[in-house]
Amino acid sequence: MSRSVIIDGSVIYTNYSQIMGHRKFEELLKEFITILSEKNSPLLEAISPFKFGNEYDIRRLSEYLHLLSMRNIRELIHIMNYVNPEKLEKFIEGFYSFWRSKHRFMVRHEKYVSDYNRRASIEYTMTMIGDQFKAVIKNLYRQLISNISNEFPKVMRQLPSGAQAMFLYDYIECDDFGAKWMKSIPTIWGAIFDPPAIFYTKSNKRKGIIPIEEKDILDKINLSSNEWFRIPIYVGKLLFFNFVHKEYLAHGAGLANLFEIASPKDIKNKKPDGIIIFGIAPEKIPDYNEKWKNAVVFKDKNCYVGVIPGTDENDYFGYMKKTTLTVHNLIMIDNEKLPIHGSMAQITLKSGKKATAMFVGDSGAGKSETLDALNRMEEVAEVNIIIDDMGSLDIYNDSVVAYGTETGAFVRLDDLPPGYAYHTMDRSIFMNPDKINARVIVPFNNYKDIITPIKIDFLFYANNYTEVKDESERIKFFETYEDALKVFSEGKRMAKGTTSEKGLTTSYFANPFGAIQMKEKHEKIAQKFFKKMFETGVKVGEIRTMLGVEGYEKEGTMLAAKALMKIIEQKG
Fold this sequence. Notes:
By secondary structure, the chain is an alpha/beta fold. Strands 15, 16, 17, 18, 19, 23, 24, 25 and 28 form a nine-stranded mixed beta sheet that branches. Helix 4 (85-101) runs antiparallel to helix 5 (116-149), helix 10 (367-375) crosses helix 15 and helix 13 crosses helix 14 (519-536). The radius of gyration is 27 Å and the shape is globular.
């Protein structure tokens, strides 16, 4: 049974017949009844008059509901005089909730135009169609309930029931590396969200390290244009083509909130630096190996290709993000750059003192949380986040500089202050808010800022496992680059439930996304960069966030932020 519903955005929805007369309405009704039958639900009693033998007459039930949207139930006694109104009302309520539990996407084919005003008009039209569809769905539900109960609700609740995300797509000629299927895949060039966008996926943790295989793959697979979408994005300065199966389009929506979407004029006839395929059935991956079950990166003759098999276990945005960033990091290492799993911000105090600080650490180390704590301090004027999760170090004009990859953040809600989720609700995508490791994808900066190289003042390893009592121990600086490399390379952290790991763990350079796969080459690059930082006055140290220490999950990052603020205040 499909979880995602694709709504045709080329239709202007104005009446109930467009909804109830559509084959998808009957398909949804059949699916809902099948689920109720598996549970032996008492809701089925409401539609017993439509049961013949062991089967329900879906077409007849659909036609009856269609009539019920126009006339009172009392007027339909001549058609079906033994339908229980109270039970039918509960059935309709259940069906409406079932519809709202679906991942709902509206798509519309529109030729991309360069002119801003014309493009704005296209997007406005799509927004209008989405709003009209939402209104028709809500009014249909209310009309059915009213005609069954002979009452109208005293309190009307505007429940989200339309499309959660709307996509505009076109067919763009790009370099396909000889893979003919690539040209036929619709390319998304615009996205519109109807907040709050909340998606419930079947998994909420990632596992293991993504293996790298030297194997040509692009000319051996075939993606259908009826089932797949291409979302072109910029990962830092690199162009990626992310192909997403329609069943996993929630993760495609996440991409639009996390990365800069590349416009068709930027990608036309261009080769991507990397390719990601999310949601392909394992049996359609050539020579499938069980060790690829969560994700694999192929070193194709043309470029790196990340593949995430379409399974329930992989139905987690973390796999989309981390596979994308693994491919990015492999390219960076090939180009002698140092990919960093961390966060970075330009911090300005009200006193006028400024500093650019970078924090390195694996998932749950307290990188983003420390920056958030700084942002809430009275003494701080601004925290301009450049990197939230992954960036790269480079050397410009004999100085070590950094730039980012993402314009948004994929943040663990459990580690954020109360109220944060509500503060960002109007622009965020929420993933599994009812579970441990609940996440929110929220934009935080513009693309130009995150790709602009910035000279760094501080580089910290985010230590979330050491309990600190003495204020002077919250931040410790290393005396030599060898001492620093030892701590950074060991990559210790207390697992926080963001992965399948538990307890105190280690991960080479806190970066299982490319660094560990190319460890030998990465070590040489890291040594060069750390040596250069010590030569040029970048202060390299360890900051104790205590995010993994029981009792300090909230307070620890604030204490670390205060210690950093004092150091910035003392900075010359």
